[in-house]
Amino acid sequence: MKETGMKYRYTDTEMKELLSTMVMLIDTREQQNKHITDYFDSKKISYKSKKLDYGDYSAYLPKNEKMGIQRDVYFSAAIERKNSVDELAATIKERIRFENELIRAQGSPFALMVEDPNGYQNIITGHYRSQYNAKALLASLKSFETRYGFQTVFIAPHTVGNYLYYHFYYTIRNALK
């Protein structure tokens, strides 16, 4: 979220109330995410599908006239999800498309999430289906991270919904402070 010079000061109670209305955004092109939407449903976390310019997940605060918010407030933060190191390797191999997405996300809080808790180890040991050399894959990933200012998180699939929710919860909370 770009700094506008204008800030509201919310009490802790107001902040909690605002954050309780947060809606998760899921890119309309996102596939195979039932485990994520099941988590959101089980925790009564609101979500909706929307075409995102970059990333697969984001969040917004809906209009809340009682709190003085006259329209939906969208945040530039996004997370790109890969369901495995195999998908990550294929994506990085398609450099131009991946880099174009990173360029669109540049300057925004952005993270790359890979559903594999042993993902980093699998990269450095070459345990993935692509013929992409392990050192070359790691070099490409780390080069993209430093060039475009994002981090890669390797995470177990059953914790992804929780991670997404709290990532955006605290991103928005800190933006509002």
UniProtKB/TrEMBL annotation:
Gene3D superfamilies reported for this sequence: 3.40.50.10130
Q: Which residues form the ERCC4 domain?
A: 23-118
Q: SUPFAM superfamilies recorded for this chain?
A: Restriction endonuclease-like
Q: Which domain of life is it from?
A: Bacteria
Q: Which InterPro entries match?
A: ERCC4_domain (IPR006166), Restrct_endonuc-II-like (IPR011335)
Biological processes per GO annotation: DNA metabolic process
MF terms (GO), sorted A to Z: DNA binding; nuclease activity
The protein in question is named Nuclease
Which species is this UniProt entry from?
Answer: Domibacillus mangrovi
